Amino acid sequence: MPKQKTHKASKKRFRVTATGKLKRSQAGKKHLNSYKSRKRKRNLRGAVIDTGLLGRKYVKMMGTV
Asked: Are 14 and 23 in contact (CB under 8 A)?
């Protein structure tokens, strides 16, 4: 059986933590920020850890498991 290839788009956007969870930045902060409130932009700053089904799917696509 051939090796599984790494999904390059996922590799550029996400990271896998040491415990195997998916770490990503939040969407909605790249452009059109002038009308968004300070509080909204501040809350979009931090990284998010995805532990659900979608997170596991992308971790598998990245070929780290």
From this structure: yes
Would you state the pLDDT for residue 4? 83
Neighbouring C-beta atoms of residue 62, cutoff 10 Å: 19
Around Cβ 45, how many Cβ atoms within 10 Å? 9
| Number of domains into which the chain is organized | 1
CATH number assigned to the domain comprising residue 24? 4.10.410.60
Residue 65's pLDDT is what?
62
pLDDT in tens, 49-60: 988 888 888 888
Which residue reads 């195997």 in tokens? Answer: 20
Tokens of 53: 């089904």
